[in-house]
Specification:
The complex is a heterodimer of chains A (293) and B (442).
Chain A (H helix, E strand, L loop, with lengths): L1 H6 L2 H33 L6 H7 L13 H8 L3 H32 L5 H13 L6 H10 L6 H25 L3 H9 L4 H12 L1 H17 L2 H6 L8 H8 L9 H21 L1 H12 L4
Chain B lengths: L1 H10 L3 H5 L3 H27 L12 H11 L16 H38 L5 H11 L1 H27 L21 H8 L1 H37 L6 H8 L1 H4 L2 H12 L4 H8 L13 H16 L1 H12 L3 H9 L4 H29 L2 H8 L17 H11 L3 H31 L1
The chains are: A mainly alpha (293), B mainly alpha (442).
């Protein structure tokens, strides 16, 4: 009884109401586009986004009838299967390559002293500040010279290489925080540098490696610029190019409900992974804060 | 005498080691030199030496041709398809840069060879010597660093160093849609392009106009995202809210969706026959659709709204994290001293949060300068501005540069702009860096 009385005291009630109105309004703003995406993916309407909205009108955009047509159309009218396969190949190679190449780089620059270390760190830092895709013309020419154009494997190698200046700092920043006494103890026991890396540093760096690996895997799925530049034939198109084309109102293949269906197929697994690895994300952001060590 | 071994090794690699009676090591260095010479001969010089082709650097191997190519950028344009021997300026520049990068790698071995010959000779003279076997053992352990980073280094050189260097050097050439090789030759023009950008009215106007909007965009969009994130974090963490985790879980949804998907979706929200117009008409707020992307104000507003939607979750989570580290005892002490809730918030909570997030805020602003995706996918830079050189009202410097490069082939101008962007980003990051270091040393 006392509690209820205190609750409805104006000095408590109005702030409570204000905060909750804000929370609910914010929730609607955040949720509406997501729900619209789901609703449109299941909607039988084929037309402009406005027409789809009219069909799904309401605070919660639920279509009047449900259909899976949009999903089947992805595979019959559009080449979703091909796009998916290409993106998967590129992302997997990028993931594996990134983990191998980048962890070695991070380990060497974080833990070992050698001639050229300072120069290396400094030049990578400067490189990182140059917007990398401004070098597009040169990258295009390199691919042309080596005959790598329209080759998804070469694109994966570009992602592995292009990611180094950025991720090396994260990796190094994290490894710097691992106590040095661990390595020293291992060296005392006669371990080689390779063993210290595989047995001590690598296992302890799993959180940051997971974070970077996730980024390396996710990046290629959603990169549009480089596939558009380097992959020409339609059998080499990736998810990003495909989704861009069918969501572009000025494109001949424009099909907004198929886009939402295709986007959903990608967004659901990514969302699940994101929520599963949420703590790693907070960690990655924190590591980023210290990267100017 | 030790200098003799060094000089010998500088001319014929490994000969100094032979003088030191270290034959295997000597052979190793000699093999590397032979590899370098072999590449040069194999890629062309042999034909030149044998007289199969006219004596000209164009017909030499990759190293000589590469250096000649970077210096001259070629001599014969392909004015018609009848011209069989011609120079492709940009290809020459690119292969020259790659050749120089490979030569630099050889130079590392060269200086190592010379240094080794000198040091071993000195040790020999003073009586202490090391067998090749122990040397190799020590070397393998010492060179772990270099072997481990070699693949990464090769990647960085090929995909970052060389392209970025190429892009940077393009700023000092006349490489643009008037001079597309191989039909035309590209030439070094020094700072001419920089001068044009600064002195010509339309280029200057565009640079200032687009630059100003980029700065406004970077600050306003970042502050909006951080501001909304901050307000939500404070509200969610206030004692009035029952299930903070539920709300937070809901609000990080935009963060979990790949941003390309969100951006492509939002474009369809704001188009004339799109979702927003339909909703507003159904709610009888407007009677006819608004052309959001036809108006400067609406396009910019749409970008801010979308960016806030996409970007507030990150700061919100970070600020929540900082708020959990606040010490409750400090607050108790404050209330005993008679501080009101608002005073506690202003004097205790705010400064702590601000100190923790300000480096991230600065990085966020620096990042927003180059927020390519949102402009490219949502407005495409439009609506176009007639007073600008190939740019629109919502174009950021980076999307303008992209347009200059891919749509208009104004490579030299794009490179000049990239250099400007680089200078701005580098100085902001550098300043931030010294700040955090100073902060750490305290």
């Amino acid at each position: 009884m006392k509690k209820v009385k205190r609750f409805f005291h104006p000095r408590r009630f109005f702030p409570w109401l204000g905060v909750h109105i804000n929370l609910v309004v914010m929730a609607i703003i955040v949720l509406y586009p997501v729900l619209w995406l789901v609703g449109a993916a299941l909607s039988p309407i084929r037309g402009t986004p406005g027409a789809v909205t009219q069909d799904t009108f309401g605070i919660i955009p639920i279509p009047r009838a449900f259909t899976l047509d949009n999903f089947t159309r992805l595979f019959t009218d559009h080449n979703y299967g091909t796009w998916y396969r290409n993106s998967l190949i590129i992302a997997t190679i990028t993931l594996v390559g990134t983990i191998i190449v980048h962890t070695f780089m991070g380990f060497v620059f974080a833990r070992l002293q050698f001639r050229g270390r300072k120069t290396g760190l400094l030049s990578i830092m400067v490189l990182q500040m140059f917007p990398s895709f401004l070098a597009m013309v040169a990258i295009y020419s390199i691919f042309l010279t080596f005959g790598w154009l329209d080759n998804i494997y070469a694109l994966a190698f570009l992602y592995i290489g292009g990611g180094i200046p950025g991720t090396m700092w994260l990796m190094r920043g994290y490894m710097l925080n691992i106590p040095k006494s661990l390595d020293e103890a291992a060296y005392m026991d006669g371990a080689s540098k390779m063993q210290v890396f595989t047995k001590v540093i690598f296992p302890l760096s799993k959180p940051i490696i997971t974070f970077i690996g996730f980024g390396a895997f996710m990046g290629p799925w959603m990169d549009y610029i480089f596939p558009r530049l380097l992959l020409r034939s339609s059998h080499n198109h990736t998810i990003a190019i495909g989704l861009f084309n069918i969501s572009n109102p000025t494109d001949g293949a424009y099909d907004i409900t198929a886009f939402t269906a295709g986007a959903l197929i990608i967004a659901i697994p990514f969302g699940i992974i994101f929520f599963a690895f949420q703590k790693y994300f907070a960690l990655g952001a924190a590591a980023g804060a210290n990267k100017g060590e | 005498m030790a200098i003799l071994a060094a000089i010998m090794s500088a001319v014929i690699w490994g000969s100094g080691q032979f003088l030191n009676k270290q034959y295997i090591k000597g052979l190793f260095f000699f093999a590397i030199q032979m590899l370098m010479v072999g590449i040069e001969l194999y890629t062309g010089s042999l034909a030149l030496i044998l007289g199969h082709v006219p004596p000209h650097p164009r017909n030499a191997g990759m190293f000589i041709r590469g250096i000649w190519g970077v210096i001259t950028l070629g001599e014969i344009p392909r004015e018609s398809s009848a011209v069989l021997v011609y120079d492709h300026s940009t290809m020459l520049m690119l292969s020259g840069l790659i050749a120089i990068a490979i030569l630099l790698a050889f130079a590392v071995f060269w200086q190592w060879c010379i240094r080794d010959a000198y040091k071993t000779r000195k040790k020999l003279i003073s009586g202490e010597s090391e067998t090749t076997r122990t040397y190799v053992k020590r070397l393998l352990n010492d060179s772990f660093e270099y072997i481990a980073i070699a693949p990464g280094l090769a990647f960085v050189v090929l995909f970052s160093f060389v392209p970025i260097f190429f892009a940077f050097l393009t700023a000092f050439t006349n490489y643009n849609n008037q001079n597309i090789p191989p039909r035309h030759l590209v030439e070094w023009v020094g700072f001419d392009t920089f001068r044009t950008v600064i002195t010509s009215e339309i280029w200057g106007n565009t640079l200032i106009g687009v630059g100003l909007w980029t700065v406004i965009w970077a600050f306003v969009s970042t502050l909006l995202a951080f501001g909304v994130g901050f307000i939500q974090a404070v509200f969610i963490n206030s004692k009035l809210v029952r299930w903070p985790k539920l709300w937070r879980g809901l609000y990080i949804l935009p963060w979990a969706i790949p941003s390309l998907v969100s951006l492509l979706l939002f474009r369809n929200f704001f188009v004339t026959n799109g979702v927003i117009n339909q909703l507003l008409m159904d709610m009888n707020i407007i009677s006819s659709p608004i052309t959001f992307f036809g108006s400067v104000g609406w396009s910019r507003a749409a970008l801010f709204i979308i960016n806030t939607w996409l970007g507030f979750a990150g700061p919100m989570v970070l600020i929540t994290g900082v708020m959990t580290t606040l010490n409750p005892e400090t607050y108790e002490a404050a209330s005993i001293d008679g501080a009101s809730a608002f005073q506690q918030f202003r004097k205790l909570t705010l400064p702590t949060i601000f100190a923790a997030i300000s480096p991230l805020l600065i990085m966020g602003i620096a990042g927003a300068f180059n927020n390519f995706g949102i402009v490219f996918f949502v407005t495409g830079g439009g609506p176009m501005n007639a007073r600008y050189m190939m740019a629109g009202h919502t174009d950021l410097l980076i999307t303008w540069v992209y347009r200059l490069t891919l749509d208009h082939r104004m490579y030299n101008f794009a490179s000049v702009m990239s250099t400007f962007i680089f200078i701005v980003v580098a100085s902001v990051s550098g300043w931030n860096l010294t700040r955090t270091r100073a902060f750490r040393e305290e």
